[in-house]
């Protein structure tokens, strides 16, 4: 792994693209020490449905009595729309065709509940908090619908709140690559990153008192 | 926090670590998946394995819905032992409590406490004492509570001799008899009482700045039951008895009493005073004040570990503070007076600041209007002289008579603390230090400010006090010169005509600032109450009143007070105290000056304005508040408004500008350095 200041798209790194083509998966998993596992959805359209055990599954498979494809959340700019393929409610209102999601709105479908949040106005990235105890794919504690960046850190307006951390870590995409940076020292697989670094499947990112692993789904 | 194993490690065959969960009392805990995808928690044991393994093995086949199941124990290729446990996905009660700073709804408390009691009763029924009950060991998943760390804490006494046995939370839940090394099932009941208290109120009953302070509160302090609903007070009081023999006898009894309390039919019961007698016995000799005689607050010595066995009685103890005839006679003589005075002061200090202000105001009104002012002044000065002489005498002799004793008695034999094993309490304190720091570091500035008000007792060296005071006194001259000069701009006369007034304003304000600053800085960080601090300012107020009156006549600067003016809010009604006139011929009299400065120095709590632990370096609100207090004062006891307002506002501003202010983060570092 090589790190450099500024334009990291020039770097030759494992899993990164020389041509600038996106090699990013539609979903990835972040295993954050002392915090939990988080499913990060990178596509504009994110589907929600039941766990089927088949190869082709929805983006957010929930072990619950849902349809195979129960609802879709679509990102439009920095806003989000939900459309349902089976009965679903936004608050107490049935979603008939499409509805806009606002921060802190609650989605209910067949006993499964999610709270939709956009923790910071600085980013269009949203978070889905599970309101019920249904198991989400891979045992995720939370779901991040990532626009351009995902903030991991101690503050309440971070997308993944890691209360024991000192410095936040920003995960962001640029030119079809996933990168990370932090105001504090940052290591990727044990190597010191200068300002920012390209990260890919299997990388372990370590900060002052933080550590997480990226796993492509 | 660094963990030994990285994600995707496979220290045990068949299990892949995905992430670290936490570093607990006995080792690191990881979230892992079996090859088939089963979620488990893997606990790595690295210290005292034999001891801990015996405890875990004993609990290996216990099954209860409210206990975290232990699946197996395995050894890796390095010879380290791993406990494979059930993974509970939810939050710990500790994390949930953060969401309820004022306590949880009673229905939820009842529901969860029932499950905790069921799980704990199951353990007790099988002869196992948990010994480390705390919210961080209680896991909540789908409203089901599971008790974790079973078996690991059974041999806590032995394992405490090594590093890494406890987490920071434990000290809040530690029963007093743990200090003696006694670990019956009563320690779990005590912890249950603390947990219930915390669930209802959002706070633990014994809080403190240091672990030592908290431990001492467990040993000696009475919990504040007023925060609890009345029906719960008896239940908590019985569960928190210092004496384990008098404590609620079983978890079952605790649960029955809790149900009664929930129904509201529990009789309210106060804890008898006898329950709060310190429980330190001969086998527990905590050194409270070693090397810290100047500090009023109680601390467990972190440097010198307490002895596990009673040390040989030093010969010097025959003449020790508590044993000396002088000391006994002295104590007996002052006891009735001191106890009544202390109870009065305790009661006063317990009142909210508004009540305190009203009380002070009421006393002042009574004193001024009853014509007793001269008598009170004479008595006050006399009392202060007696008190000062007494304090000086005590400081000379040593409050405990130690100085006298040490000169005449042989030195005590050296205590070989280094060669003896650490007492559990000292060991625990040592281990908690680092974790307390870790926890505290995550406080926000707001939280730090809330926890470090100006009243915070802290150590400030004499050198630091003198340095800060001299620097503040010097700086105040500059600021006052600037503010006083402003008069030139508003004065209608020329510079030459205005100079005496400028000098008068500057010199009087400087005297005010210097006198208040001196008292405030010398008492900063001490346990001296607000009333004492106010009393210390009385002589300064009297001198100040006389000086201001004298200067006014010397410089021929006479503040005008014209009652006939249309714009004044004051009337002659507030110009008299009994037969004493405060204003005569439109000028304040000497009595008027004395009255003003007594009120000015006494009513406002000035020490908080200049304290380095105040909320902000410069607070406009504080300045406005001073102005308001002075306005109210002079609307009752007449005094020229402009002059009083100038003194009040400028002095408050200068206090803040000229004194040191410790930013919140620095307060943490100072606290860390101290501990």
SSE layout and pairing:
The complex is a heterodimer of chains A (217) and B (675).
Chain A: E1 27-32, E2 36-41, E3 45-50, E4 60-62, E5 71-76, E6 79-84, E7 89-90, E8 93-94, E9 98-101, E10 105-109, E11 112-117, E12 126-130, E13 142-145, E14 149-153, E15 160-161, E16 169-174, E17 177-181, E18 187-188, E19 191-192, E20 196-199, E21 204-206, E22 211-216
Parallel strand pairs in A: 2-13, 3-4, 14-15
Antiparallel strand pairs in A: 1-2, 1-22, 3-5, 5-6, 6-9, 7-8, 7-10, 10-11, 11-12, 12-13, 14-16, 16-17, 17-20, 18-19, 18-21, 21-22
Chain B: E1 15-23, E2 27-34, E3 39-45, H1 49-59, E4 70-75, E5 81-86, E6 91-92, H2 93-97, H3 106-125, E7 138-141, E8 144-147, H4 156-159, H5 186-201, H6 211-220, H7 230-239, H8 251-263, H9 325-350, H10 353-369, H11 373-397, H12 402-408, H13 424-440, H14 445-451, H15 462-490, H16 495-523, H17 530-555, E9 576-577, E10 580-581, E11 583-584, E12 587-588, H18 590-603, H19 607-610, H20 620-636, H21 641-658, H22 664-674
Antiparallel strand pairs in B: 1-2, 2-3, 3-5, 4-5, 6-7, 7-8, 9-10, 11-12
């Amino acid at each position: 792994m090589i790190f450099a200041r500024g334009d990291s798209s020039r770097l030759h790194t494992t899993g990164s693209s020389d041509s600038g083509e996106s090699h990013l998966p539609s979903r990835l998993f972040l295993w954050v020490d002392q915090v939990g596992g988080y499913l990060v959805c990178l596509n504009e359209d994110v589907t929600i449905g039941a766990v089927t055990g088949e190869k082709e599954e929805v983006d957010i498979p929930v072990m619950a009595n849902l349809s195979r494809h129960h609802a879709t959340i679509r990102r439009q700019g920095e806003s989000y729309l939900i459309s349902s393929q089976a009965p679903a409610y936004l608050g107490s209102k049935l979603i008939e065709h499409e509805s806009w999601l606002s921060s802190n709105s609650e989605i209910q479908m067949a006993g499964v509940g999610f709270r939709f949040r956009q923790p910071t106005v600085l980013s269009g990235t949203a978070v889905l908090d599970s309101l019920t105890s249904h198991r989400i794919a891979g045992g995720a504690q939370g779901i991040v619908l990532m626009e351009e960046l995902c903030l991991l850190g101690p503050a309440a307006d971070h997308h993944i709140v890691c209360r024991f951390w000192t410095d936040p870590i920003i995960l962001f995409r640029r030119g079809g690559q996933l990168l990370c940076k932090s105001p504090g020292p940052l290591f990727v697989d044990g190597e010191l990153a200068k300002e920012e670094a390209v990260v890919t499947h299997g990388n372990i990112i370590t900060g002052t008192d933080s550590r997480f692993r990226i796993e492509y789904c | 926090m660094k963990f030994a194993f990285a994600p995707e490690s496979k220290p045990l065959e068949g299990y892949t670590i995905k992430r670290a969960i936490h570093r607990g009392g006995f080792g690191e805990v990881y979230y892992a998946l079996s090859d088939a995808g089963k979620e488990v928690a893997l606990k790595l044991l690295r210290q005292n394995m034999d001891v801990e393994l015996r405890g875990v093995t004993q609990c290996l086949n216990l099954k209860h819905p409210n206990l975290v199941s232990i699946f197996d124990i395995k050894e890796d290729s390095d010879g380290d032992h791993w406990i494979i446990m059930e993974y509970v996905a939810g939050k710990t009660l500790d994390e949930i409590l953060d969401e309820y700073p004022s306590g949880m709804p009673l229905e939820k408390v009842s529901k969860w406490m029932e499950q905790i009691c069921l799980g704990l009763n199951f353990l007790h029924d099988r002869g196992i004492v948990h010994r480390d009950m705390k919210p961080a060991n209680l896991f909540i998943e789908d409203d089901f509570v599971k008790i974790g760390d079973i078996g690991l804490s059974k041999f806590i006494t032995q394992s405490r001799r090594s590093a890494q046995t406890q987490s920071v939370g434990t000290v809040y839940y530690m029963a007093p008899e743990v200090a003696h090394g006694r670990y019956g099932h009563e320690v779990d009941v005590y912890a249950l009482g603390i947990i219930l208290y915390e669930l209802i109120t959002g706070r633990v009953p014994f809080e403190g700045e240091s672990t030592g302070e908290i431990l001492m509160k467990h040993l000696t302090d009475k919990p504040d039951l007023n925060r609890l609903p009345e029906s719960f007070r008896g239940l908590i009081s019985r569960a928190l008895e210092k004496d384990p023999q008098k404590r609620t006898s079983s978890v079952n009894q605790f649960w029955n009493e809790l149900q009664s309390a929930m129904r509201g039919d529990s009789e309210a019961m106060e804890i008898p005073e006898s329950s709060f007698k310190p429980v330190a016995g001969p086998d527990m000799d905590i050194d409270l004040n070693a090397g810290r005689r100047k500090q009023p607050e109680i601390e467990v010595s972190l440097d010198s570990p307490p002895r596990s066995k009673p040390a040989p009685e030093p010969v010097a103890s025959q003449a020790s503070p508590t044993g000396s005839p002088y000391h006994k006679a002295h104590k007996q003589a002052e006891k009735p007076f001191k106890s009544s005075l202390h109870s009065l002061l305790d009661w006063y200090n317990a009142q909210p600041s508004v009540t305190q202000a009203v009380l002070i105001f009421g006393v002042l009104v009574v004193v001024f209007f009853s014509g007793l002012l001269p008598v009170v002044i004479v008595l006050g000065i006399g009392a202060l002289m007696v008190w000062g002489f007494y304090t000086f005498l005590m400081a000379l002799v040593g409050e405990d008579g130690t100085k006298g004793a040490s000169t005449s008695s042989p030195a005590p034999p050296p205590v070989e603390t280094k060669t003896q094993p650490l007492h559990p309490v000292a060991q625990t304190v040592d281990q908690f230090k680092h974790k307390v720091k870790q926890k505290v570091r995550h406080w926000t500035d707001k939280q730090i400010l809330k926890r470090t008000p100006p009243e915070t007792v802290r150590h400030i060296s004499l050198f630091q006090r003198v340095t800060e005071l001299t620097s503040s006194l010097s700086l105040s001259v500059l600021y006052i010169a600037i503010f006083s000069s402003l008069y030139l701009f508003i004065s209608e006369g020329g510079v030459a005509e205005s100079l005496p007034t400028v000098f008068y304003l500057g010199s009087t304000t400087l005297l005010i600032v210097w006198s208040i600053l001196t008292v405030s800085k010398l008492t900063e960080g001490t346990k001296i109450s607000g009333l004492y601090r106010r009393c210390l300012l009385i002589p300064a107020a009297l001198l100040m009143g006389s000086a201001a009156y004298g200067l006014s006549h010397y410089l021929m600067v006479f503040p005008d007070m014209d009652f006939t003016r249309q714009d004044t809010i004051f009337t002659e009604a507030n110009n008299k105290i009994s037969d004493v006139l405060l204003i005569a011929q439109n000028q304040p009299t000497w009595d008027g000056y004395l009255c003003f400065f007594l009120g000015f120095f006494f009513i406002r709590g000035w020490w908080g304005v200049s304290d380095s632990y105040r909320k902000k370096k410069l607070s406009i609100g504080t300045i406005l508040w001073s102005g308001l207090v002075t306005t109210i004062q002079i609307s009752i006891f007449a005094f020229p408004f402009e002059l009083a307002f100038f003194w009040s506002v400028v002095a408050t501003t200068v206090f803040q500008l000229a004194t040191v202010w410790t930013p919140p983060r620095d307060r943490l570092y100072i606290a860390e350095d101290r501990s």
